[in-house]
Every structure is written in C-alpha cells, then in structure tokens.
Design brief:
Jelly Rolls, 3% helix, 28 strands, 2 domains
Amino acid sequence: MSKELKYQTGFWNHFETEAEPGTLPRGQNSPQAVAKGLYAEQLTGTSFLAPRLQNLRSWLYRVRPTVSQQTGGFTPASFPAIRTFPCEGSVADPTPLRWDPISTPSAAADFLDGLVTSAGNGDAAAGAGIAVHHYACNRSMSASGGGRFFCNADGELLFVPEQGTIQLRTELGRLDLPPGWIGVVPRGVRFQVELPAGAARGYVCENYGAALRLPPLGVIGANGNANPRDFETPVAWYEKREGAFELVTKYEGGLWSTPLSHSPLDVVAWHGNYAPYRYDLSRFNTINTVSFDHPDPSIFTVLTAPSDTEGVSNVDFVIFPPRWMVAEHTFRPPYFHRNVMSEYMGLVKGEYDAKAGGFVPGGASLHNCMSGHGPDAASFEAASKAELGPKYLGDTLAFMFESRYPFRVTPKWAARAQKDYLKCWDGFKPGMS
C-alpha cells in the first residue's frame, strides 16, 4: 500500500506488479491456493479467441472476489445528464456547431454529478461508436456519501483534463492526470476520480468499439508520433477499507447502483496487458512538412480504435500540439474541407490557429460528415498575407475526437450551442473580382 505513485512504462506490454512481496504466483497463472489468502480473478477486455497481438487480459489477486462486491443487487441510479447512444431526442445536425465551456458547479459535485454528455454516435450494445462527455467537478468521489466508485461496462474512457489535476484511483493502481496529459480506464475497471488540487474540468471520450491502440506508422517509419515507452501504467496499489460505499455501474446505457461494505480497490497484485494507462502529450513527436503544402491531420494521431473496415476508425484521438510551422508558399492554417469522418474538437490551452475567437479552452466544436468548415474570415485574411518565416506555435493544445459515424447532439447540449458561430464565416469576398 505504498503512498508514492509509481509507474511502469510501455504500451500494451505484459506487466507484472505486486504491492505486497510474494503475492504473484510463479510458474502458472492460477495456482490451487493463492498466496496470503487472496483470490485470483481474470479480467478480459477482448474475446477469448482474439488474435494474440490483440488479446487483452489481466490476472488480479485481490482481497475479495468481485462477486462479493455486488451481493446487494443493483437498482436504477439517476444521473440525467449522462446519456448513451443511440440517445432519444438527439439530432444529427449538418450545421457546424460550437459551445462555450461548462461552469464548475456551485454546489458540491463529484465526477459523476458533474458529467454531461454532449454528443455521440453508433450503438453501445453493438460495440460501435463513441460518446463525448464534459466534466466539471469540485468534490472527490471518496467524499460522496462515504465513497462512490464507478464502473463502465459500455466502453473504455479516455480522459482529457483541461483545468485541474485529477487522480484516477483504479483497481490496478493510481494515475495522476494534470492538464496536458491523457488517461485511459479500460472497460469494466472500477475506479474513483479524486481532486488532489481542487476543482477540475475536462473532456471524456467513451469508446464503445475496439480498444484504443497506437496507429500504424506507415511511411513515417519506426520513429515519430507517440512512442510506446512513454505510456505509463500504474503499479499495484490497494486499500483494505471497510465502510458504507456505493458502486455505480453503466450497463447498456443504464446507470445502476449497489451498496458496498468495503472498497473494491483491493487488488494486491496483478499481471497482464489490460490496465489503465496515462500519456504526457508533450512527448508526442510531431511530424510536419518542411517544404510546402499542408499534410492531412492524420499525422497528429495519438491513439486509434479501428472499425471493421480497414483504414476507417471507430474513433481517432488527434492532437494539435506546440510545433514549428515552416511550410513555404503555403496557406498554413487548416484548409477549407469537407470530410467523410466527423470531427468533435476541444481546446486544452491557448488558441487554435484557424479561429480568431470564440473557441476557448474547455469549449468544443462539431463539424459533422461532409459539413464544410475551415478557418474563419479573420484567420483566412491574416494567414493569406502573413510573411512565411519559421513560426513557433507554442501556447496551444487542441485535440479532436474523429469518428467514422456522424455525431448526434443531445438535447441539452444542442440548447447550449453558440447562436452566432456561423457568422465567423461572413465576409468572404467572391473570387475572380
């Protein structure tokens, strides 16, 4: 039960870690009697027959088996701002949309209280599509009625903090996530969101499909983009704590609650490749043009979740980090475009180079399949006349959840859309004048 946070590096490696020496078995996965009276339990993230390179599973050695954590049964729980797709009342709108950040609640609110679903697509029950959520909270989940835990059976959760550090206390260890980092909690892992430095705000992508992974590098070669060794997985940490706790589970779109008499974070040791992880986005090795023309944003892909169609992603997580711009004879901001993929964007810090205003940290924009978008009139005018010397974009970090499926916007989020967003494209003069 070390108080110091420690990590092991690598992406989808087979890890082994124990908080108490002598806990992990040697020579076979599940001995007849586990050391120290613990219970062996396997957590699988893929089907048993998944190919070896995609097969995800971990063996957990815990104080109590999971079955003893739900003996009270589940009853429906009410978190009306959390939605699952397909979502009743949601609309697939071809209109470009943009939103201001959500505010930190005035009353005490933990992560689940402050989680709002904005948009999504696909079908969670069919294992396809994603949901996008925004969170704003001011209370740790451990302070909610003695302690609240969360488990998502519908998909894995990708956290993108924008304000304030969050700590993910999971069954397999703890992850600290300040702004500028991301963290992933796999489907089915139980966890709490703690606030070590006060209120926090950010984004969450709920991926219903295949687990996120590093994209193929293709002609980039062996190096560049996200390096596997820079991803960090927590070492084993556990608590043997009794009390009156609550477990909230998301299952086929419903939210369910069950009382617990002890903490579910009681895994003393584990080994495998199905585990939470984190990544410092400043370690992303950006690839860009050093001559002319504008490469596609796929060069900025950190993680991808493939679909059943080769080359078409269920979701890509793409970032636009600090970088040098050196292209000659080239319009440097993103060009005007229409995509078969749909783009949900957020901003962690600074400004985005294609928007002169209105797109601020904590905010969001949506440009759905084949909806035209690009730089606003002011950004276009400035970039068209800019002197093209080397320029460093330093104070910026934008990102995109890009999906093969058009996004549908929840009714609550649709009502929050900026009313004047489309006016940013007013003022373009006709060509051939």
